[in-house]
Design brief:
The protein is of the alpha+beta class. Helices cover 53% and strands 13% of the residues. The strands form 2 sheets. A two-stranded antiparallel ribbon has the order 1-2. A two-stranded antiparallel ribbon has the order 3-4.
């Protein structure tokens, strides 16, 4: 599809647009509005697919498990997936940092985050989570939608 933008009768932009990309962008924008209070940075299904391909095998399995669980994973299962002891730093300095770095390389945002948890209630609720559009996209990229 070709589009042309005119200002005061003068053509200022002519472009060729892939309709499928335009539809995906509009759908993503609409979905993002539905999840404005989400903790996780919104990403598209294409970005989620790219994220899964950029991270190591254990991190991809971890993210797919969060998608399968509809947005969360328990600490005990994280320890199993990552083959780590009861030390949060083993996760955060290796795998968590790698996931965040890959996400930020894809989105270009230096403060973007995918995974979050509740520090105050960790003893009673030892889960990490992904929510909003990021979860929806991760579920789609993982084959759970």
């Amino acid at each position: 599809m070709e589009v042309e933008l005119k200002l005061d009768g003068k053509s200022v932009l002519k472009a060729r647009i892939r309709v499928s990309s335009l539809i995906e962008a509009i759908a993503s924008a609409i979905a993002a509005e539905d999840h404005e209070d989400a903790e996780s940075t919104p990403i598209t299904p294409a970005q989620a697919t790219e994220l899964l391909s950029r991270v190591d095998t254990k991190s991809a399995r971890f993210l797919k498990r969060i998608a399968e669980n509809n947005g969360f994973i328990e600490w005990e299962e994280m320890q199993e997936i990552f083959d780590i002891d009861d030390d949060w730093n083993e996760y955060s300095t290796r795998f968590g940092k790698g996931i965040t770095r890959a996400l930020r390389n894809i989105t270009g945002g230096n403060r973007d985050k995918l995974i979050y948890w509740d520090d105050k209630n960790w003893e009673e609720d030892s889960k990490v989570r992904v929510d909003g559009m990021a979860l929806q996209s991760l579920r789609e990229a993982s084959g759970y939608l």
